[in-house]
Amino acid sequence: MLERIKTLLGIEDTLQDDVLNIIIENVSAHLKALLGKDVPSELEFIVTEISIRRYNRIGTEGMKSESVEGHNITFYDLKDEFVPYESIIAAHKDPPEKPGRGRVMFI
After folding, report:
1. Which of 35, 67, 98, 103 has its CA 20 to 30 A from that of 60?
2. In angstroms, what CA-CA distances link 68 with 38, 41, 56, 57, 59?
3. How far apart are CA 45 and CA 42, in angstroms?
4. Quick check: is 103 in a domain?
5. Which residue range forms the structural domain that includes residue 42?
6. What is the chain written as a DSSP string?
């Protein structure tokens, strides 16, 4: 995944590997928490896309939008980064366990 992200970003050296690996780990952990299980290989594209967004935001983490000479950029809040993928994530969540009937034993 690291090499694919570096290719998409046009990075040809290893200077940013540590930063990218931390971003990948954070995004993967966030997605794992949303899924309630390990990230399946078919959802790794979400980790890739969001990791690229987070890498490109380095230095502008606190900004919501930026405007320079007529060029406007609006960023997702970190809490909203997974919103475009909600239906995909929901389809991959394990169904909740059905509460069953329990037993009570008296000794």
Report:
1. 35
2. 41, 39, 17, 16, 16
3. 7
4. no
5. 2-92
6. -HHHHHHHHT--SSTTHHHHHHHHHHHHHHHHHHHTSPPPGGGHHHHHHHHHHHHHTTT-TT-SEEEETTEEEEPPPGGGTTGGGHHHHHHHSPPPPPP--------
Task: Compute the radius of gyration of the chain from its Cα atoms.
Answer: 19
Q: Does the model's pTM come out above 0.85?
A: no
Structure tokens of 3? 């090499």
Residue 97 lies in a domain: no
Whether residue 37 contacts residue 29, with contact meaning beta carbons closer than 8 Å, is answered with no
What tokens were used for 30? 């966030």
